[in-house]
Specification:
This protein is of the alpha/beta class. The protein has a single domain, classed as TIM Barrel, CATH 3.20.20.70. Helices cover about 45% and strands about 15% of the residues. It has twelve helices and eight strands. The chain has an eight-stranded parallel barrel, surrounded by six helices. The relative contact order is 0.15. The structure holds 1,3-dihydroxyacetonephosphate. 1,3-dihydroxyacetonephosphate binds next to strand 8.
């Protein structure tokens, strides 16, 4: 059985003081969660979140990582730097980075390798655009993005990775994939992993759904057999909403 993992992706929100306030509210609220709980926060909030989450079941995540060890990459952060701040998970290849910052499948793969080499868990985002779904290319797109992102990892490293299936048309739009659509496409991703790495790997890898997941739709999505968790944007910014999502089975 795969353990569910619910991660908040705060995106470009929250000052350190606001971050500490949110995490302090979450600590007692989610302490009995049955799933892994992660908050992926801006780097400027790492210290505040680490301190506020100390001794709790809330893990620290980042939203990106550079692929080089160090060097002349103004504005970037290396995997070792994140790790030294207590980061355990890194969102990689989010569609906003692909759309606005020129992220490609190749750079996503390089970032995943750097993240894994530093001993952190990647949360690898894949997903189709609206017109790709409408033209019937969803499966090809998500299979390709997933296998490219994982390229070069060992079977054990793939097993320990997290994939987030985020249909781009469902992000921040209030539109959610239906439970069945999300389950089906996540099944396609798992099958692609099975073909390349074998069933013991595809049975172990955790695949989240992301895209307007909230307290109202989390139960239905999480009841689907292929869906192992969620990557939550808007609903992760308020303690009551994120708590309800994390405690979806209570
Ligand atoms: P929303 O939950 O705001 O749609 O964002 C989803 C997302 O992009 C998480 O990474």
């Amino acid at each position: 059985m795969r353990k569910a993992i619910i991660a908040g992706n705060w995106k470009m929100n929250k000052t350190p003081a606001e971050a500490a306030e949110l995490v302090k509210a979450l600590v007692p609220a989610v302490k009995d969660a049955d799933c892994d709980v992660v908050v992926c926060v801006p780097a400027t909030d790492f210290a505040a979140v680490k301190e506020a989450a100390e001794g709790s079941n809330i893990k620290l995540g980042a939203q990106n990582v550079h692929f080089a060890k160090s060097g002349a990459f103004t504005g970037e952060l290396s995997a070792d730097m994140l790790k030294a701040c207590g980061v355990e998970y890194v969102v990689i290849g989010h569609s906003e980075r692909r759309q606005y910052f020129g992220e490609t499948d190749k750079t996503v793969n390089a970032r995943v390798r750097a993240c894994v080499a530093a001993g952190m868990t990647p949360i690898i985002c894949v997903g189709e655009l609206k017109d790709e779904r409408e033209t019937g290319y969803t499966d090809i797109i998500v299979e390709y993005q997933t296998l490219m992102a994982l390229h070069g990892l060992s079977n054990d490293e793939v097993k320990a990775s997290v994939i987030a299936y985020e249909p781009v048309w469902a992000i921040g739009t209030g539109l959610t994939a239906t439970d069945e659509q999300a389950n089906e496409t996540i099944g396609v991703i798992r099958k692609a992993i099975e073909r390349k790495y074998g069933k013991d790997v595809s049975d172990a890898v955790r695949i989240q759904y992301g895209g307007s997941m909230n307290p109202g739709n989390v139960k239905g999505l999480m009841a689907q057999p292929e869906i192992d968790g969620g990557l939550i944007g808007g609903a992760s910014l308020k303690a009551p909403d994120f708590t309800s999502v994390v405690l979806y089975n209570k």
